[in-house]
Amino acid sequence: MFGAASANITPCAYWAHEPSEPPVRINDKGPRNVLIVQNLRDPGTPHRGGELLREKFAKRPRRVSVDGSGHGVYVYGDNASVLNVTTIYLVGSTMPKDAFCRPTNPYGGIPTYGNQRTPR
Length: 120
Description:
The chain is an alpha/beta fold. The protein has one domain.
């Protein structure tokens, strides 16, 4: 399913119809409870895309980057740190700080908070 997405070819490119709705504008207006969770090595949605989305939202979102691979971070991933941070947010709506979660080790993932640059 994500093979075509990572090659930037989707069925939509071949549809003969115009979109039924205008594109959604992404900007700094709107709710401030946006959480972006993303793996560093996601073939379907590259990490740089998450960085650009974060910039468009300005001060609205928080971002959790995960030193992991694949398209599923939450539920499908096995990083204890990001699972805990995201579940706490979803259940209690407590916004986490921007964080970088290292790969899970036998003792659990350890998030690094703050304005640290994530590796590329």
